[in-house]
């Protein structure tokens, strides 16, 4: 009888405290107290249930957290998926001793719905940030490539402008030759006229020389005009290339400054995911 009285006193002490447990937490918790055979007291949570109004008086199921705590005679923490009782929850089972003798146990449990929602949100956030990070990296690479292409096009444009200038010099030489040829043809015509009948054949040659000189002069004018238009177009292209290169350089610089911030955000997202996973981790078991 003395042993029974002591066992009842131990459980009564737990039962005296158990109704106050939910007042020490912000979460909605459930509490079950058992002896070594059955549930002798319970306080169900307000926001979820296991599909039945009460388990009071039920014999202990070996798979229950409180049962495992009694079997191992030590504190047990478990997270149970919703496939078992329709709701995912985490529970802590603690054995109750009266001296060296095991007399019962107490279990506190709560839903992990908020944890799962936070984990889902954090994983979506993490995925989005990782995608953003990849996009920023791609944009940075493309901006650098665009800048390099712009610089290369700028060099090509300068080379084209220089070649146009060289072509203009050649055209100028041709124009001078044409002027000189025209002068020679004119002098030849004068000499042919001076000698009269004997210079008639020479006069024909002189006329052809003058026609060739005129054709050359007209061609050089046309070429000069075309070269002027090309040079003008190359100038516009060079200005456009410079603007594109400046924008690309600015974009690359801006993205380079953003990349560390995105990387930090990605690390923060990883941390949030880990924190969400650890919400129901038993720190006392570590």
UniProtKB/TrEMBL annotation:
Keywords: Transducer. Gene3D superfamilies: Methyl-accepting chemotaxis protein. GO terms for biological process: signal transduction. Transmembrane segments: none annotated. It holds the Pfam family MCPsignal. Residues 135-286 form the Methyl-accepting transducer domain. This is Chemotaxis protein. It comes from Formimonas warabiya. The lineage of its organism: Bacteria, Bacillati, Bacillota, Clostridia, Eubacteriales.
